[in-house]
Amino acid sequence: MNLILCSLCLLMVSSSLMAGSKVIATGGATTVEGNSGGGIVPWATINGYSSSDEWSLNTFASRVGVDDFTLESLGFGASFNNQWELSFARQNFALDSIGGELRQDIIGIKYKIAGELLYTSLPQLSIGAQWKKNRDFALPAAVGAKDDSGYELYLAASKVFFDAIAGRNLLLNATIRSTDAHQTGLLGFGGAGVERKLMFESSAVLLLNYNLALGTEFKQKPNQLGFADEQHWRDLFAAWFINKNASVVLGYVDLGDIAGLTEQTGFYLSVEGTW
Amino acid sequence: MVKYLLFVTTLALAACQHSPETTLYQRLGGETGVENIVDGVLSGIEQDPSIVHHFADTDIPRFRRLLIEQFCELAGGPCRYTGASMQESHTGFQITQAHFDALVNHLISAMQQQKVSIEAQNEFLAMLAPMYKDVVYR
């Protein structure tokens, strides 16, 4: 974590490192699950700045601190042709007041199927898959999860509307995710009476200029584990795309009730480097 | 918290809103502004090895004049574009998305250099972005 932060600090003071041709901010930020998007919702955007026939790499570190829990995510990814995105993320969810931790690895792939975020009237459409694997399964098993791994599929549509509000550009995103995960997989997958469900997620982001954006997100959650209610997630964030090599996102998150502890709200910080 | 943020944002945006009585052409800086933007784009192209080869056989003074005409007309200025359609003038050049992105970056830099307001930049980009389909992979 410290190493990544230090390297990102170095990135911020340099400005002419290798980067792809895409326009700044069009690679989005990186979610806590490692794919391009906002903070909690994957978008149809492809991470980094690789345009046609170009490669890009990215790495990120994020921390969500709410009343009784802390989620740290670290990861890296690669993108090609503004079409393919591969990602890996390792999550560590610390149960600050209960004690212990829940760790999970996530491998993701995303493929742009149609549209161009900036240039076509059709929104950019991408499909994605994530494979999630718990590294701690004792607690999820004890509260009723059947599997320590699971997959999710999603379809995302994203579009930038130029000159939309007060002369600013607006990004709108809608995502549909198929999942049987509990608390995004941190509490395992499946179980008695648990079905695969389709969840809706959305984001709206106002680009104040080329480098600064304000956004909000909503993530519907399935709530299928009997022992404690799971609630939808929401956030508000400000993103600073310093240059094509570094970005920082600061947010306020509302994760609802988690494992019986109510009203989990707090702050979110994410730093990302792209090459 | 949420209400406060929305309030601050609304105030900030309202403060920057442009007055509607000026045309986009005026807000791009009129004749001088558009000429400077076009010159900025041309200089960006000249220094960009990824796209400069597309202009190897281009009559640059003519290209400059047509681009000024086109920008001026699009922005509501007193000009008429006399060149070929976007589709005609780009067919066969094997222009990729990366080339198009590069040109957009040069245009943005040129407008930033010219101190064009973000509202006017976005209004202009909104007019140019749909040309993608007539320019790329033709």
Automatic annotation (TrEMBL), chain A:
Q: Write out the entry's keywords from A to Z.
A: Signal
Any one Pfam family here would be DUF3034
The signal peptide here is 1-19
Q: Report what the protein is called.
A: DUF3034 family protein
Native species: Rheinheimera mesophila
Automatic annotation (TrEMBL), chain B:
Output the superkingdom of the source species: Bacteria
In alphabetical order, the GO MF annotations are: heme binding; metal ion binding; oxygen binding; oxygen carrier activity
Could you confirm whether the keyword Heme appears in this record? Answer: yes
Where does this protein hold heme?
90
**Which residues, if any, are the signal sequence?**
none
Q: How is the cofactor bound?
A: Binds 1 heme group per subunit.
- Which Pfam families does the entry link to? Bac_globin
Q: Does the entry feature the keyword Heme, yes or no?
A: yes
Q: Which UniProt keywords apply?
A: Heme, Iron, Metal-binding, Oxygen transport, Transport
Which cofactors is this protein said to need? heme
Family, as annotated? Belongs to the truncated hemoglobin family. Group I subfamily.
Q: What is this protein called?
A: Group 1 truncated hemoglobin
This protein's species is Rheinheimera mesophila
Upper classification of the source organism reads: Bacteria, Pseudomonadati, Pseudomonadota, Gammaproteobacteria, Chromatiales
